[in-house]
Design goal:
Layout (H helix, E strand, L loop, with lengths): L4 E2 L20 H14 L4 E3 L9 E5 L12 E13 L3 E5 L9 E5 L2 E7 L5 E7 H14 L10 H15 L9 E2 L5
Parallel strand pairs: 1-9
Antiparallel strand pairs: 2-3, 3-4, 4-7, 5-6, 7-8
């Protein structure tokens, strides 16, 4: 089932998410729905807060990216913790399904080690680099209540203020199912 993507301004996008256990209700169905939603939205990553759930889970599939390593970079991350990030930070233009039409350069470290549980609650501790590390960092930020626009300069954020406000009001071009914050 395709789930709506929660737009910028939705309070769930700013929450530090809570861990789950193997008994989380309908976990396998949720994971399947998240993958279906991500693919339908032409994304390469999706975090639970983006579908309205303040829990520590995100999915990635970087296989459409040419040259990405590992080449079969499709994973589910449950209760992840980034243990270490290192290397000379590099800028790259990022976008986000919750913030359609806006793309900005974000500086991130090129390598990381992360501990997580997969969809079968098997524990892993793995290192990633390059684009795989960047995708993980972007999605990890979501479960920490951060968005890529938090990394732009104050001047740039001020310039984006009108666009971000329009997104929160639903005044934005998008070609996938979205849910916009309710304004009172």
């Amino acid at each position: 089932m395709i789930l709506p993507i929660y737009a910028y301004g939705s309070p769930v996008l700013r929450k530090k998410c809570t861990e789950i256990d193997p008994n989380y209700p309908n976990l396998q169905e949720l994971i399947a729905n998240m993958y279906e939603t991500m693919y339908e939205s032409n994304g390469i990553g999706l975090a639970a807060p983006q579908v309205g759930l303040p829990i520590r889970i995100f999915i990635v599939d970087g296989t459409p990216i040419e040259g990405i390593k590992p080449t079969d970079f499709k994973r589910t991350f449950i209760n992840p913790t980034i243990l270490n990030e290192w290397g000379e930070p590099w800028k790259y233009e990022e976008g986000c399904l919750s913030i359609p039409t806006i793309r900005e350069n974000v500086s991130r470290k090129p390598e990381l080690t992360i501990r997580f549980w997969d969809e079968n609650f098997k524990e892993h501790e793995l290192s990633f680099d390059g684009m795989a590390a960047r995708i993980i960092q972007h999605e990890y930020d979501h479960i920490e209540g951060k968005l890529f626009v938090d990394y732009v300069t104050p001047l740039k954020k001020n310039l984006l203020k009108g666009k971000l406000n329009n997104i929160s009001l639903g005044r934005v071009e998008h070609d996938y199912k979205m849910r916009f914050p309710i304004k009172k």
